[in-house]
Automatic annotation (TrEMBL):
It comes from the Bacteria. Residues 1-23 are annotated as: Disordered. This is Phosphotransferase family enzyme. The lineage of its organism: Bacteria, Bacillati, Actinomycetota, Actinomycetes, Pseudonocardiales. Gene3D superfamilies: Phosphorylase Kinase, domain 1.
Length: 409
């Protein structure tokens, strides 16, 4: 059976696919999954009642009921099919997600922070995954009107991130071996090239687009962050896009979805992203006062048994500041042209996803937070640059603060 193709985005409200084209694609996907599971188990497996779980223009994701099951398969499964083909010379998202799911599935169930991988088909670029159920996402909790539930969900999410990274420390070679089995001869963090480009280009961007001159000492401080992009003693698995809508709040704790850009990287890049406006598929929101610090503390507590040196407050502050610089400069390179009237060129790993009209407020919030943390760490040049950028962004609409999440409004 030929791979499915489409240019249409999937529905995202958990309903059976309605349009004829969508129904046809779903039926083909169910047939492919039946073939895969039957071949894997050596006896007929029948799937029924597909429900569209959303996805994107690049993937189709459905929940199916296991109608005929001669084995001990779960009652329901989730099937994800990649609709696109990787561009020449670029990383293949299917391979990265499949390798990530294999890595995490091999871990003890009490340490697994993802759905279990049931089967995969590299030829048709398809994954069959454990169905974690009809759980709320972290994004749902933040959109509800229960601040205590939202706070618990955020802290549980941060702890789960730390626990996942602690349990994958030292597994980078395993991840590389899994990728090679799928045909990726070498792998690298997809963030690295964009980050190095940002460190090189942002000073000129600031000068040309905002009329802000970055002092040489500020540039030197920023470029020191590049050390996080290479080998270090603090590397672990990262899902890369830690969006609230990619986290299920289950009875067993937070579980992560979507590992298309997952890789091993310095854990400080995960910790620092907890201090910034969280990536979101909708309008950007502000965290309540003190929540970022509480989330970092929850994340840190899971890591110190593996990396005791991270219990040193000064060391942790320094590493997180370097990572924060990388995220803020990445976002600036991608979003600043749109702030001043040009097109944004957002790479897929910017810490804030699709800010749209909120770009001035998002960039201002990022630089403002960087300025606060740089001042606390004694990085005077970075703090002064941040203040200048925030002031300049104010002339482009960046003086409007981000609204809070509905849970904290």
């Amino acid at each position: 059976m030929a791979p499915l193709t489409t240019d249409d985005a999937s529905t995202s409200d958990g309903r059976a696919a309605g349009s004829p084209g969508s129904a046809d694609r779903t039926a083909e996907l169910v047939a492919l999954a039946e073939e895969l599971l039957t071949r894997r188990h050596g006896a007929t497996v029948r799937l029924a009642d597909p429900v569209d779980l959303g996805g994107s223009t690049r993937s189709l994701v459905v929940r199916v009921r296991v109608a005929e099951n001669p084995f001990s398969l779960p009652h329901t499964l989730v099937v994800k099919h990649y609709l696109d083909e990787p561009a020449a010379g670029s990383a293949d998202r299917f391979r990265y997600e499949a390798a990530s799911c294999q890595l995490l599935t091999a871990m003890p169930s009490e340490e697994r922070a993802s759905p279990m991988l049931v089967a995969h088909d590299p030829t048709h670029r398809m994954l069959v995954l454990e169905d974690l159920g009809r759980c709320a996402t972290l994004a749902d909790r933040l959109d509800e009107r229960d601040p205590k539930a939202a706070e618990r969900a955020l802290l549980g999410w941060a702890r789960a991130l730390g626990r996942m990274q602690a349990s994958t420390a030292g597994r980078e070679d395993d991840f590389g071996a899994l990728l090679r089995r799928f045909g990726e001869r070498t792998w690298r963090d997809p963030l690295a090239d964009d980050a190095r480009a940002a460190l090189a280009e942002v000073p000129d961007q600031l000068a040309q687009l905002l009329r802000v001159e970055a002092a040489p000492s500020a540039v030197v401080e920023a470029r020191g962050a590049a050390r996080l992009l290479g080998g270090s003693g603090h590397r672990a698995f990262s899902p890369a896009e830690i969006r609230p809508d990619n986290c299920l709040v289950t009875g067993s704790g937070s579980r992560f979805l979507d590992f298309e850009w997952a890789c091993f990287r310095d854990i400080a890049l995960t910790g620092a992203s907890l201090r910034l406006p969280l990536p979101s598929g909708g309008p950007a929101r502000a965290q309540p006062s003190g929540m970022a610090e509480a989330m970092v503390a929850a994340w840190q507590a899971e890591l110190t048994p593996v990396w005791p040196d991270l219990g040193d407050a000064d060391l942790l502050r320094e590493r997180l500041l370097h990572a924060e610089v990388l995220w803020v400069w990445l976002a600036t390179r991608a979003l600043l042209p749109a702030v001043v009237g040009g097109p944004a060129s957002r790479p897929p790993h910017v810490v804030v996803a699709d800010p749209g009209e909120d770009a001035p407020a998002v960039l201002s919030a990022l630089w403002r937070r960087l300025g606060v943390d740089a001042e606390r760490a004694g990085r005077v040049a970075t703090a002064e640059l941040a203040a200048s950028v925030v002031g300049a962004l104010g002339r482009h609409g960046g003086d409007v603060p981000l609204p809070p999440y509905p849970a904290f409004a």
